[in-house]
Amino acid sequence: MKVLCANPPWWIEDPDAIYGSGLLAGVRAGSRWPFTSTVRSRPGQYRFGDYIPYPFFLGSAASYLAREPGVAVSFRDSIALREDYDKFFKYLAEGKFDYVVIESASPSWGHDAELIAHIAADYPHTRVVVAGPIASLGEKLLADHPLHAVIQGEYEKGLVKVVGGASGLVGYDILTEAELNAAPYPYFDPLHANKYWDSNPKGQVFPQLQVLTSRGCPFRCIFCVWPAVMSNNDPDGTGVRRVRQLSGDYLEGMLTELIGRYGYKSVYFDDDTFNLGDRHVLEVCAVMARLGLPWSAMCRADTIAWDTWRVMRESGCFGVKIGFESGNQWVVDNIVRKNLDLEKARDVVYHLKALGMTVHGTFTVGLPGETPEQMADTRRYRSSLPLDSFQESGTAEIEGSPLSTLRRTGSLEKYAGASLEGYVAERDGTRKMRLVELRDAGLGEAEMCLRHGRPAVAESICRNLLDTGGEDGKVLDLLGSLAVRARKFDLAVRFFSRAIAADAAYAAPCLHLGLLLRDQGLAEEAASCLRRALALDPESLDARQALVALGADPDDGDTPDAATQASLARSLAAVPVSSWGRTLRRAMDAADAPQEADAAEGTDGEGKYPRLIVLDHGLRFLAGHHFAYNLGVLAECVKRELPVEFYVYADCQPEAVKVLRAKAVLQPSRYESHSSDRYCSWLEDFLIAGGIAEFNLFKNLRDLDPSDIVFCHTADPKIVRGIAAWYLAMDKARRPYLCLKFQNHCFRFVAKDQRALARSIFRLALKPFINEPKVSFAASNKLIGSQITQMAEKPCPVFPVPLQLEVPAKKYRSRAEKGVLRIGYAGEGRVEQGVGFLPEVAEAILPAYPDVVFELQFACRFVDDDTLNRLRSFGDRVRVHESCFVGDDFHRLIASFDALLLPYQPTSYVERSSQIVIEAIALGVPLIVPVGTSLALEVKQFNCGYSLIRGYDGLSVIEAVAHFIDNHDALARKSADAAPRCAAFHSGGTLIDLLLASCGVPVPRTPRREGEGGNGAG
Ligand code: SF4
């Protein structure tokens, strides 16, 4: 007879996720409160670092049953293996099992019931047996699902009964303490043995063995499942609860065998409560002292003597998890009924810290009857504890616990404070957390989060609103805008289409969809949407202007009716993802095309050497990339003997002014707006800043020759308007060449609701230049270039960075040859540069990859102390430089890295360039960069070695770093190949050639030997 003890796969795909990974994974058997979360692994791809508990009851039952004569037991933990469904079902088909045993609980039951129905339909010879907390539903399960048997409580003996012929409901019958101490050891095999991992409490060493030393707990916390339903039969918290503990001898035999077989380096005792009484704890300590392995355990704060903690520490216990549940004593006493004195618990935590142990605190929020103020008490209490880590989970409601009984009956005699009033019932703790935390947040809060750079929270609020209120046009429209922002265009179309379907009279989604389609080059579909927007809102200036820009007459043409509009939206939703962005690509290709010099207009300066005038409206300091850019221009001009003058702000650092021999004359724009209306204040600021720029130029740049080239490499909308006013006021014959280079995204500092206005004004500011033959545009990357091209209808090629590399590029060496892999990070350490993820990344990567070290350079002291201290706690494996490296020193540092990690916030770097990326590529260093940013575009353009960070969260960064390490050799080789290509393009020579060519000025072929002007000889 063949029996499979299975923990089947549990994956959930969410195709509508904007900021999440769109994939959730669940943990089931082995977790008291099964839940779903984002993980590093993917279906069919195991990656180290995810929380994966050992399925304790399933593993014990498998070993117990295997002793039965004539029974062949197989064990398959698809959650630990990160197996996909196909592989699991293939295994099932090949195994031809007579029985499949699945442990399930409320959070996974919806998923598991479907899976069981599938097994019953496709494998009719296999009988399905269900155990675990869900078995509390008893006969109902058997009536509703194709099950052979349902076993209640721990199921070693129950499974033997089923294989012996029992079926239907198999009642509660658990092992006695004596039987437990005579049972075979839990099932482990080489396939599964090293897959289990819990990173808390801190200090874990991989590979980790997870086992129980006891079963049951005498306390009766309202939400707690296993002591109520698996090891006792007490669903309302009124019965007697027994505890069974393993003897020291049995435990030592078990640990010795498992450690000997699988080479474990640490042990985690995941008991309900490990430290129930000094006797048991001291016995375990004696065993662990003999084995000499570091260990940790799940504990209560108040069940052993003060001195027993010390003995634990001395026997190798480096950390404990402690359950507090709430920081409000009344809640602990009357709702949870934990019998814990929070003040004494606090003393214990301090005692443990004094002993040198790590402490992980566990808390839960959203208990029945708990108020928002009491939840705030929990956070306050938690902050008052010197914890190394903590978890705050949403209270999950699981069948068989007193909490689930409360929901059914409405009250519980022994839990005086528990009430269903205002209670949010939820089975999955992760989802519950979101529901509780964002319960009262409305659309206004979502919009505010978006404005304050928290789009992921805005998305969560919108999702809650949809969950609780159904389809809503405004909420869906906001989700569409979030998707546009995240550059998930197909998703944006789906959301806008749903918004139009939900509220046919609401104009905004029609407008937004129209603008999106226009940007994607779908002019006809865009015009159709924009006409509908205009029909719904005749005042919509944006719709009107967009139609004009498309060459359509806003007052002409049929407005499609709702049915036509809906069918249009449906057909758009079916457009394959790959077709989005095609216009963007066309624009990029156009930007890449060689510029045709205008011979007639470009001859003004023929026979003369032009003077280059560099306007820099951003330089303030000597260090950093901004200064390096100017230095690169200066060096190239010196080399060519090309006269050059720099104009910078009057408050620029004197040393920088001195090195560049700059004229520090530009007056900074520091204007405080008078208006409290945000649109008016923006316009006011725009006008004043533009006016100041105009005045600065008028005052300081009067004596110009038509052969001069004015190069403004920090153009932004405000300055452009001022430059236009200054330039056009000049006599046409005297106008110099002018090249405006756009460095950053032009609107990144403009709040979203003002961006349409800013964009319109910018377009107007650019308009006077469009037909000016001596004015050219340039951009620092393709994205900005394509935007300017679209707006100004004038080519906007990408200009290189004038790199000056004295340090040679890295030569390829395999990981085996290197011995140590150095992952580097260099930057100012700002929040938006993802510095907060670094400790988490180090924590996950270092134990898994012994040959990896991190080297981090923080040029400015923006990093908070907590992050720094956590980084320093890794000792030699994380080296931190808190100093500013410049010039060759900086390049040497970058070249010493085997990869440069840039976990930047994607929304801040969609268009914004980063010079460090170019330096790394030119130095042959592979990169780890966020997807959907200009950084990613840059690495792809040069086809260097890179690993993409798929989301702005620690997990995604860990995943990308692991991907780099796993693929080091191939990526390092690609980077070594890409380095010369990048260095050839990003050089001062190429920049000046392109600048001269874009102005139609002949490039001087021979250096000038005499003459005046410029300070380029410095
Ligand atoms: S003390 Fe811990 S194990 Fe015991 S009932 Fe409470 S939460 Fe459950």
Give a description of the structure.
By secondary structure, this protein is an alpha/beta fold. Helices cover 44% and strands 14% of the residues. The chain is built from 40 helices and 29 strands. A 6-stranded parallel beta sheet has the order 5-1-6-7-8-9, sandwiched between helices. Helix 4 (106-122) links the parallel strand 6 and strand 7. Helix 9 packs parallel to helix 10, helix 17 runs parallel beside helix 19 (473-485) and helix 36 packs across helix 39 (968-985). The longest helix is centred in the last third of the chain and has 23 residues, at 678-700. It starts with a strand and ends in a 20-residue tail after the last helix. Residues 571-608 and 1005-1018 have low confidence and may be disordered. The structure holds iron/sulfur cluster (SF4).
**Largest beta-sheet details:** 6 strands, parallel
Q: Give the strand tally.
A: 29
By DSSP (H or I, 4+ residues per run), the number of helices equals: 40
User: What does the overall shape look like?
Assistant: elongated
Mean pLDDT: 86
Rg (C-alpha, Å): 33 Å
Regions with little confidence, pLDDT below 50 for 5+ residues: 571-608, 1005-1018
**Strands of the largest sheet, in order across it?**
5-1-6-7-8-9
Could you tell me how far the N terminus lies from the C terminus, measured between alpha carbons in angstroms?
A: 90 Å
> Structural class of the helix and strand makeup?
alpha/beta
- Small ligands present: iron/sulfur cluster
- Strand fraction: 5-15%
Instruction: Give the helix level as a range of percent.
Output: 40-55%
